[in-house]
Amino acid sequence: MSQMLNRRRFLQASAAAAASIGVSTVRTWAGGVDEYVEAIVIGSGFGGAVASLRLGQAGIETVVLERGRRWQITDAGNTFSTTNNPDGRSTWLSPTTVLPPPVPEIPIDVYTGVLDVKRGNGINAYRGAGVGGTSLVYGGITYQPTEELFYKVFPRTIKYSELDRVYYPRVRSILKASPIPDDILQTKYYLASRILQEQAAKAGLQTRKIDIAFDWDIVRQEISNQKVASVIAGQIYYGTNSGAKNSLDRNYLSMAEATGNVEIRPLHVVTMIGESDRGRYRVVCNQINEQGEVLFQKSFVCRYLFLAAGSIGTTELLLRAKTNRTLRRLNNHVGKFWGTNSDSNTVMINAGETNPTLGTPGVIAVEHLDNPIAPVVLEPFQSLPFIPQGLIPVLGQGISQPEGYLTFNTATQSSDLFWPINSADSQKNAQALQYTYQRLNLANSTSLAAPPDYSSTAHPLGGATVGRVCNTHGQVFGYPNLFIVDGSFIPGSTACSNPSLTIAALAERSMDHFLNWIPRLRKI
After folding, report:
1. Predicted pLDDT at 21
2. 378-401 as b/e, with b when 16 or more CB fall inside 10 Å?
3. How far apart are CA 65 and CA 52, in angstroms?
4. DSSP assignment of 250-319, as one string?
5. Cis peptide before 86 (omega within 30 of 0)
6. Is it the case that residue 242 has pLDDT exceeding 60?
7. pTM assigned to the model
8. How sure is the predictor about 499, in pLDDT bands with cuts at 50, 70 and 90?
9. Rg (CA), the chain
10. pLDDT tens for each residue of 392-424
């Protein structure tokens, strides 16, 4: 009887979630019968891809539920739309494109495209959608933080030496990440990166090449016109048509499927998670079509549940479960300790040509880690359209305190995001950034077109953080076999570096721990 009541509560809550997005009629798959699978992974970004591969290799029957669609690279080089001529493929279920200013919003067909934005109070948070998650729309930047800065964010129970020796190298090897070769860096496509590198040297600031998850031989084929111009043309944020980007669907996820134990189900939007019977978990989702219309509602039961829907997606699922009492023992830290990685955007003014719309971001980093106010990293962040010659877009990153939070809105059946953009910590990081820019400008007779803009982030982190919602291996407190393996685990920052490498390395660490304990877990 209790199982039936639990299932009824799930379906009622899921129906409310469906109604909140305008769905009036939802058919239930297979007569309302739960589908049992040993493990479910929600999301296929960096954490979900790692979990899927390791579960598959361990022989555990696994289903991956991914809200977005597959994006297979074609020989014609037309899988994705472009930033110069966007269509529905660019954006997740929106009537307009969503790239931040100065890029204008352009009307498009509503479609399950690759780039999504969560609009919040004080911040807009960008994320990917599709098999491969944010790896479809990121710049391939595979950046390891220093040990000193790592421990400004993470507890010392997570051993940096272990990450450095085992897990960071493991992720880099699978992503095939490597620094930009000099012959490519010296082309016109990376002029902006070279200029910033030279200016940093004049200012006495350290620079270094960052590992990038690209196939540089394919980039060379782009340069010689053997492949469609993608990376060299700045085509990153809506996907890369040449196939040069080593996104997760082309390594971790394809390897997971090759085990024969992992099934990826695209266009499955999870609406509810909670307890079932005998220590198991129920997951309810909507199967949608490519226009976002709900075709069926499905219900799964699993023994092991891994949450990897990203900082926004995972946190919203947990907040909904807490509000609707489908996971009653979740604590009050859910939704808190969220941050932006101290992301900022600005534009540097230079006297000559800069080719700011060509090439890709982050191939070099300016590291001002001994900034007397707070550590700062700058990366050239070209690739946005409509930037005129003479300018260099720059991404700044630092260590932001996780002062943001998400709450659950019962009226919309979704989360609301809040970020204190004018807090003392935010002002300190802004002052540190200005200090670094002033040093660059004085040494090079350059200037900023406008003050740094902190109103958007491509690196949302937190909401279900280590030590607050889960332990250091991602197990949610009070819920054996329920795990956090994505960016929601991380309290607001990955210590002056782009987060993807650290998210994946921490997921590798958690999965090793889980698989070492699973023989004991199976006896429970």
Report:
1. 45
2. bbbbbbbbebeeebbbbbbbbbbb
3. 11
4. GTHHHHHHHTTSEEEE-SEEEEEEEE-STT-EEEEEEEE-TTS-EEEEEEEEEEEEEE-SHHHHHHHHHH
5. no
6. yes
7. 0.95
8. very high
9. 22
10. 999 999 999 999 999 999 999 999 999 999 999
